[in-house]
Amino acid sequence: xxxxxxxxxxxxxxxVSKTFINGNKSDIIFSDFNLQIEISKVTCILGPSGCGxxxxxxxxxxxxxxxxxxVKYKNNYIQKSYLFQEDLLLxxxxxxxxxxLGIRFSQxxxxxxxxxxxxxxxxxxxxxxxYFPSQLSGGMKQRVSLIRTLSAKPELIFFDEPxxxxxxxxxLSIEKMIIxxxxxxxxxxxxxxxxxxxxxxxxxxxxxxxxxxxxIIYDSQIIFNSDKAGRDPVKVxxxxxxSQYFKSIYHVFENEE
Length: 257
Description:
By secondary structure, the chain is α/β, with parallel strands linked by helices. It has helices spanning 53-60, 95-100, 109-122, 138-150, 168-185, 196-202, 240-256; strands at residues 9-22, 25-38, 42-46, 68-73, 80-83, 156-160, 188-193, 205-209, 216-221. Helices cover 32% and strands 25% of the residues.
């Protein structure tokens, strides 16, 4: 436990700087960047293409340690999972075997294996368990990847543009499933995305980054009256506040451009 982090903060990024060197050129992605991720919240990070969203994903998830500044976790032993833009399925394993990789090293593997079977049913893939990735559509592969990510019931999940291969109907149903799981398990979620409506529908908090070197140009809580009963990503899209949030955030992007 890190006693220097406030009780409601899970991750504290302090004065983070990151530069890529290409020959004689320096590409400054972040310079003294600060961001806090709250416990048990859905934080959505938006920004224009090329602003460094995926680089930030790698830094705050500790996949990339080659930076200046510090990334502190409330608990260094927190269980976390990742969902990347690519499905990253192993072609020689079946859909089920790929999903099983998410719990392979868990001490509670027997109970979690039941969770995998449940998720295959929920995501409409039960009859495709024994298919290989080459036999699945792009959307199916992305759902298998999501099952692998959710299978171990992690405390913290990082999502990097997770729904790009999904059609709209599947995206909505999976959004609802993810939020339902998050509420039941008291998880903390971090989404990296460029999709404004997706971020508003899912996020408790929405952070917008500028172009490089990236800085925070918008940071707001997203609150709907219906949230008292639990966020419903489908219903909130029909809430008048949804379009108000969209206009505000779109205006931020327009001004940045």
